[in-house]
Design a protein that fits this description.
It is a single chain. This protein has one helix at 3-27, and strands at 35-46, 49-61, 66-77, 79-83, 86-107, 110-126, 131-148, 153-163, 170-181. By secondary structure, the chain is mainly β. The chain has one domain: Beta Barrel (Porin), CATH 2.40.160.20. The chain has an eight-stranded antiparallel beta barrel with strand order 1-2-3-5-6-7-8-9. The protein is elongated.
């Protein structure tokens, strides 16, 4: 199975989660704002390099336990790594992703969550001999927790793995963000 088949299957899963959420939202009244946004910092570990990005997410809670969110990240720090005895500089240009999110309350204001989605990440790699750009499609999955400070604001921490299926390696992403509901 190639990466594009994985992306189609994961995309279909996100659409199905969204459809279930719309059906559940149509039959139940929510007592909280359904739209939310996050703004945070992500530490990205990629093949020996430690990169950073500022990430923004926009999401919609279909039910108290099911959501979908889109993500955009812009690189803010690069790093150097050694490959085949050559030191290269790596920089994250940008990343995009779409997720289905499942949430479960463990306390009145504390939720654990799981995310599954698809994304694309663009890197710039510079070595003494060459500079090139990588555009990598990925299947992304992760877990996290969110603490709501009140009905409109909260803090969130999560871990997401970007899994590339065509020798692009994998990314480990650790994110801390503020959440605002609207």
């Amino acid at each position: 199975m190639n990466i594009y088949q994985n992306l189609r299957q994961a995309g279909a899963l996100v659409v199905c989660i969204g459809a279930l959420g719309f059906a559940a939202d149509a039959s139940a009244q929510t007592m909280f704002p359904s739209w939310y946004g996050t703004l945070g910092y992500t530490d990205i570990r990629r093949q020996g390099a430690d990169l950073g990005s500022v990430d923004a997410r926009v999401g919609y809670d279909f039910t108290p336990n099911i959501a979908a969110e889109g993500q955009f990240g812009a690189g803010v720090s690069g790093d150097s790594a050694t490959y085949f005895n050559t030191t290269s500089k790596i920089w994250l240009n940008e990343k995009y992703a779409l997720y289905g999110v499942a949430k479960y309350p463990v306390m009145p204001n504390l939720y654990v969550l799981a995310r599954l989605g698809v994304g694309e990440t663009r890197f710039r790699v510079s070595s003494p001999a060459n500079t090139f750009h990588q555009e990598l499609a990925s299947l992304n999955y992760g877990v996290g927790a969110q603490y709501n400070l009140n009905s409109l604001y909260g803090v969130r921490a999560d871990y997401t793995r970007d899994s590339y299926n065509h020798n692009g390696g994998d990314n480990d992403n650790w994110t801390v963000s503020m959440v605002a509901r609207y």
